Inverse folding.
């Protein structure tokens, strides 16, 4: 055969008789399509779009349900906690007010009892009773001023008692007549 | 190609290509795929030396490259010719990979040899697969797929003259494989 020489008729016929095509497997078509879709070279079919949208919607719905459940649970818990705390605070305030009332009444009754004692004329006991009463009144006024800082009555009581205590300090003889527990 | 044989009722290639380019139309792609894959698969099998599995991989890669580069296709050649050129390059890349893999694997003595024994007569199909890669490629593209030397040259990145000389060598080698005794006598004479 010379350079670029032609094929003989037999050779040409033999070559022409060879098959030119071969049926591919169905699998090849599908994997080629999938590969092209993955590369973004082919759009998704409407069925696939629908199915993807459905999956996305299901995921979104699950997320909404889950987060909604958490939010509702938290809201219920918070509401219950707030109610409980409010109730506790209401109870505590009421109890504290009752305690103040009871103690105040006891305080007034104790001073009244002291004044009715037959020996109340004894200056030692009078001074002791006075010191106890004023100290308690001073402490009480100090607490009340925290509740109502601008209350003029409490302020006046404190001013008077402060003045009285300053005077007492200057004449303090070094002995207290009351032992506080 | 089969598109022509199937008649004028077929949607023209250009319309299908437009569908793929404009909207990634899967139906248009399937149509093109079914039109040209059987021929591409056969060509790939021959270029790859007969392995159907490797040929299927090559065809898949051919379509991926083709669709990726479809926007740049200027219709200066027929679409099947362009596809065949891509398949040819994919097959060459694949052969390079196969060769590299084979070089890394240890040689086993019990592996059957693909070369024919002295004086053995083999059929044309097997003789083509036994040709050296360069010869086989040009012979398949020219004598079986009908590409011109210019088209082969542009597909393989070689001069048309190189394609011609490769074809001559391929035909000579093919004759020797098919008629070993006669060809040997010719050489002696």
């Amino acid at each position: 055969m010379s350079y670029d020489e032609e094929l003989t008729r037999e050779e040409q016929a033999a070559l022409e008789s060879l098959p030119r095509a071969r049926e591919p497997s169905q699998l090849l078509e599908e994997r080629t399509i999938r590969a092209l879709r993955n590369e973004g070279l082919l759009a998704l079919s409407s069925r696939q779009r629908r199915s993807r949208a459905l999956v996305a919607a299901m995921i979104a719905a699950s997320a909404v349900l889950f987060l909604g459940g958490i939010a509702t649970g938290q809201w219920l818990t918070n509401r219950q906690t707030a109610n409980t705390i409010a109730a506790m605070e209401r109870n505590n305030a009421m109890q504290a007010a009752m305690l103040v009332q009871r103690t105040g009444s006891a305080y007034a009754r104790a001073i009244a009892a002291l004044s009715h004692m037959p020996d109340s004329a004894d200056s030692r006991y009078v001074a002791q009773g006075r010191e106890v009463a004023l100290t308690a009144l001073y402490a009480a006024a100090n607490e009340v001023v925290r509740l109502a800082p601008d209350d003029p009555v409490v302020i006046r009581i404190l001013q008077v008692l402060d003045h009285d205590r300053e005077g007492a300090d200057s004449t303090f003889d070094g002995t207290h007549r009351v032992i506080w527990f | 190609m089969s598109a022509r044989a199937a008649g004028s009722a077929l949607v023209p290639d250009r319309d299908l290509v437009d569908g793929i380019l404009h909207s990634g139309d899967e139906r248009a792609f399937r149509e093109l795929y079914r039109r040209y894959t059987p021929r591409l698969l056969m060509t790939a099998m021959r270029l790859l030396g007969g392995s159907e599995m490797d040929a299927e991989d090559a065809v898949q890669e051919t379509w991926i490259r083709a669709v990726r580069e479809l926007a740049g296709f200027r219709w200066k050649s027929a679409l099947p010719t362009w596809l065949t050129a891509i398949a040819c390059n994919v097959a060459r890349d694949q052969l390079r990979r196969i060769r590299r893999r084979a070089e890394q694997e240890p040689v086993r003595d019990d592996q059957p040899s693909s070369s024919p024994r002295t004086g053995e007569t083999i059929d044309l199909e097997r003789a083509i697969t036994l040709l050296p890669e360069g010869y086989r490629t040009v012979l398949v593209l020219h004598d079986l797929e009908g590409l011109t030397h210019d088209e082969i040259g542009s597909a393989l990145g070689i001069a048309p003259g190189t394609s011609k000389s490769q074809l001559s060598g391929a035909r000579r080698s093919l004759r020797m494989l098919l008629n070993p005794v006669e060809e040997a006598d010719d050489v002696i004479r």
In short: Residues 1-8 of chain B have pLDDT under 50 and may be disordered.
